[in-house]
Amino acid sequence: MPAWFDIISLDPDGSEDKEGIEKSKAVIDKLIEDEIKDGIKPSRIVLGGFSQGGALALYTTLTNKHKLGGMIILSSWLPLRKKFPGSVVDTNHDIPCFQAHGDSDPVVPYTLGQLTSTILKGFLANHCLLYTSDAADE
Hints:
Layout: H1 18-37, E1 46-50, H2 52-63, E2 70-74, E3 97-100, H3 110-121, E4 130-131
Parallel strand pairs: 1-2, 2-3, 3-4
């Protein structure tokens, strides 16, 4: 199945496909640059995705050199999380964020969404609130 990068493990301490993640990030960064060259302001660009796409959207938004309009993360996680908060571009510390995760997701464990939310709270001014299928977590 085509994918943005190889999922080696979804265990918080498991290995990750750093090369594949960075390669896919470069593809999205190029799309963003093309939009900006076409006259779209970075503040009008929002990245979002579900599962692996959400993971890439989150990683790309936080590490992009432009201050983007926001990010939407659905049933996802922060890849290469050990690089954070050091890898966050300064202009993106206060980017708007929406995170939701099904508490019965059979693929991406809810605990991974919770871990991502906890990590983001540590360095984002407008940290993502984690919403579940039942109610807000906070």
